[in-house]
Structure to design on (251 residues):
């Protein structure tokens, strides 16, 4: 079964509203030429304006995070309904920067994933090992346990709303990319884990993105691997030219 390629841009804490609109316009202008699935995740402050740019196009609007609560006295949080109100259909959860800088645990991430699904949002679940964990030979164990705990109590039929992004922490924003072979090996381990948790069919259908210094120069090699179905892109998603060049690598 051929899985569709999925390219997603995580803009992180970059771009003021006007800059975000210009970037989104540059992407939308070209996006119609591609059959792959495309998502951009601006900062919360630009979601409203970027939402207007992508409305009615083949570019999905994503959020970089979401509260695990529906509404109420949670100062500074953003609820799933608030995101949907702006046209968001996908939320990135469990990014290593949320895990590392803000102490998000697998359990907390799992609670957000369940709420996102209940609220009709699709999810990109990020997993990945640190350099120390890789050097200790624990990459596969760390990643499979993040997958298992992140997906706790989530049914097989909900998996069609979930994408997994394998993002080795040591490769994010560092310019160091996992080799295509090393990345594919972990993607394969993730797929095998999904087969044991759910079924071979569910594992085969799951889109597993790679993330970590993916750029036009290395994307074709990564995307040619049998278990790599797309990319979650940070730095190279901040310019329309490089993001569009990444889309071209899916062809
Ligand atoms: C990311 O943060 O998801 C990411 C992959 O960043 P970069 O592409 O900059 O390494």
């Amino acid at each position: 079964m051929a899985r569709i390629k999925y390219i997603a841009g995580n803009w992180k804490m970059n771009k003021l509203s006007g800059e975000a609109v210009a970037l989104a316009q540059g992407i939308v202008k070209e996006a119609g030429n591609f059959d792959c699935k495309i998502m951009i995740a601006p900062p919360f402050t630009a979601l409203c304006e970027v939402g207007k740019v992508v409305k009615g196009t083949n570019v999905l609007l994503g959020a970089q995070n979401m509260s695990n609560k529906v509404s109420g006295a949670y100062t500074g949080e953003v609820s799933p309904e608030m995101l949907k109100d702006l046209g968001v259909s996908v939320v990135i959860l469990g990014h290593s920067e949320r895990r590392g800088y803000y102490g998000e645990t697998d359990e907390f991430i799992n609670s957000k994933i369940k709420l996102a699904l209940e609220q009709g949002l699709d999810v990109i679940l990020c997993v990945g090992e640190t350099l120390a964990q890789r050097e200790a030979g624990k990459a596969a164990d760390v990643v499979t346990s993040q997958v298992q705990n992140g997906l706790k109590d989530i049914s097989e039929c909900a998996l069609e709303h979930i994408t997994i992004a394998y993002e080795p922490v040591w490769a994010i924003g560092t310019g160091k990319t996992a080799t295509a072979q090393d990345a594919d090996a972990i993607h394969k381990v993730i797929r095998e884990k999904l087969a044991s948790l759910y079924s071979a069919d569910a594992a085969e259908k799951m889109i597993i993105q790679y993330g970590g210094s993916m750029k036009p120069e290395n994307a074709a090699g990564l995307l040619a691997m049998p278990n790599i179905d797309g990319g979650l892109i940070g730095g190279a998603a901040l310019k329309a030219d490089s993001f569009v060049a990444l889309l071209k690598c899916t062809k």
User: Anything to note?
Assistant: Residues 180-197 form the longest helix (18 residues). DSSP finds eleven helices and eight strands in the chain. The longest strand covers residues 122-127.
